């Protein structure tokens, strides 16, 4: 089966989709669509296909649509495609609200149409390896997952486009799905909404009215693991996952794609504590050599198999083609995407509550940053007692 495909949206991220579609042996790129005709033509020329401004004109001849437009338009585009029986690959975040994802889930089930979302950080080679280790039970029962994504883009910096300024967290919020879905994919989905909590901070002032630029989320997974993700802007970059199991633990560094396994007790003596440093260095060296080998192989081997192993977008596209052909599950479920948006909603609500509390303090004449205010309040309570 050759999957007839169009990419809707000709912005920056479309290149990753177009490259994967063009390289996949079972996909044929039919068109690039964008409301900006000139942009559509430029991208179409780059990838040797047709340019259109209305994707709905092609739905009758398509098997798959890639949605690479601003998030505010994702729901309507995906809805139209699914109702026409066309499979959809949606860029993250899938929609603005969790309710919209839920409606897409219902439509996909009703029309028996595969639908997935680009949660590409979960398909980095080292992340896939850790997920396999978890699934195979190598770590035992997962007790906790702690994720740190530091150095995310500040709210007022434009990467994706000016549309991000419509989000409460600006460009910072646009990047939050990556650490959120990474935690969900590694640690598992929350047991319930009651097990979900979030905190936010606005660390400095901006010209625009942003609500937060730091965030943290905690929940208990369906398997009883304590899961936490901390997301920071304006710092040096770190992307770490510490996965603690009953049998062994791993530290996964996404930036250099290294995995450090902890499978022995290092606190018994000075010698064993010193050995931990040696083992960590050895693990980093092995990962560096493996990464260098992968890069070298990819330069001389442009086969789809190599592409799917080394490129996270291509890995998702490859698995999704199999799902369209009826040979597998979708790589990222809409349920995982729905929880990703639900976590984002919890973060937004936390920011609204914090802003509301600050405004109330200001109207009451209390300086939230003044520690003396707390002392005076305690003294008043003591006097009343």
Structural overview:
There is one protein chain. It is built from twelve helices and 13 strands. It is α/β, with parallel strands linked by helices and 385 residues long. It has two domains: 3-117, NAD(P)-binding Rossmann-like Domain (Rossmann fold, 3-Layer(aba) Sandwich); 124-263 and 333-385, Dihydrodipicolinate Reductase, domain 2, CATH 3.30.360.10. The strands form two sheets. Strands 8-9-10-7-11-12-13 form a seven-stranded mixed beta sheet. Helix 4 links the parallel strand 5 and strand 6 (115-117). Helix 1 (14-23) crosses helix 10 (312-324). The longest helix is centred in the last third of the chain and has 31 residues, at 270-300.
With strands numbered from the N-terminus, the spatial order across the biggest sheet is: 8-9-10-7-11-12-13
Estimated structural class: alpha/beta
Gyration radius over CA = 23 Å
Overall mean confidence score, pLDDT: 89
What overall form do the CA principal axes indicate?
Answer: globular
Short summary of the structure?
The protein has 385 residues and is of the alpha/beta class.
List the helices and strands and how they pair.
Elements: E1 3-8, H1 14-23, E2 27-33, H2 37-47, E3 50-52, E4 64-67, H3 74-83, E5 87-90, H4 98-111, E6 115-117, H5 125-135, E7 142-152, H6 170-175, H7 177-187, E8 196-201, E9 214-220, E10 226-233, E11 238-245, E12 249-253, E13 258-262, H8 270-300, H9 304-310, H10 312-324, H11 334-364, H12 371-384
Parallel strand pairs: 1-2, 1-4, 2-3, 4-5, 5-6, 7-10
Antiparallel strand pairs: 7-11, 8-9, 9-10, 11-12, 12-13
Helix pairs in contact: 1-10, 3-4, 4-11, 7-11, 9-10
Region (Disordered): 354-385
Domain Gfo/Idh/MocA-like oxidoreductase N-terminal: 4-118
Organism: Natronorubrum daqingense
């Amino acid at each position: 089966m050759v999957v007839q495909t169009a990419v809707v949206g000709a912005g920056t991220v479309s290149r990753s989709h177009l490259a994967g579609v063009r390289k996949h042996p079972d996909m044929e790129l039919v068109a690039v669509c964008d409301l900006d005709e000139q942009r559509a033509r430029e991208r179409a020329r780059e990838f040797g296909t047709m340019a259109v401004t209305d994707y709905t004109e092609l739905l009758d001849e398509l098997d798959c649509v890639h949605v690479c437009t601003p998030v505010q338009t994702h729901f309507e585009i995906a809805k139209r495609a699914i109702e026409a029986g066309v499979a959809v690959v949606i860029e993250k975040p899938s929609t603005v609200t969790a309710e919209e994802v839920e409606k897409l889930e219902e439509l996909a089930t009703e029309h028996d149409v595969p639908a997935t979302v680009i949660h590409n950080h979960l398909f980095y080679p080292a992340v896939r390896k850790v997920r396999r280790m978890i699934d195979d039970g190598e770590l035992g029962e997962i007790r906790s997952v702690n994720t740190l994504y530091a150095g995310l883009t500040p709210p007022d910096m434009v990467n994706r486009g000016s549309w991000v300024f419509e989000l409460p967290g600006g460009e910072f919020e646009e990047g939050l799905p990556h650490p959120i879905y990474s935690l969900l994919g590694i640690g598992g989905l929350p047991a319930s909404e009651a097990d979900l909590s979030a905190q936010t901070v606005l660390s400095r002032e901006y010209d625009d009215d942003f609500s937060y630029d730091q965030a943290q989320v905690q929940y208990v997974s369906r398997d009883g693991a304590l899961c936490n993700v901390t997301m920071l802007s304006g710092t040096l970059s770190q992307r770490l996952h510490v996965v603690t199991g009953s049998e062994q633990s791993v530290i996964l560094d996404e930036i250099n794609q290294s995995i450090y396994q902890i499978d022995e007790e290092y606190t018994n003596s000075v010698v064993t504590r010193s050995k931990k440093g040696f083992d960590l260095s050895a693990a980093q060296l092995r990962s560096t050599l493996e990464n260098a080998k992968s890069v070298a192989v990819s330069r001389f081997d442009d086969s789809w198999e190599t592409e799917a192993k080394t490129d996270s977008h291509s890995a998702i596209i490859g698995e999704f083609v199999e799902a369209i052909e009826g040979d597998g599950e979708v790589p990222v479920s809409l349920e995982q995407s729905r929880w990703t948006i639900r976590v984002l909603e919890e973060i937004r609500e936390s920011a609204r509550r914090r802003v509301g509390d600050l405004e109330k303090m200001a109207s009451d004449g209390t300086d939230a940053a003044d520690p003396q205010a707390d002392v005076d309040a305690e003294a008043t309570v003591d006097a009343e007692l």
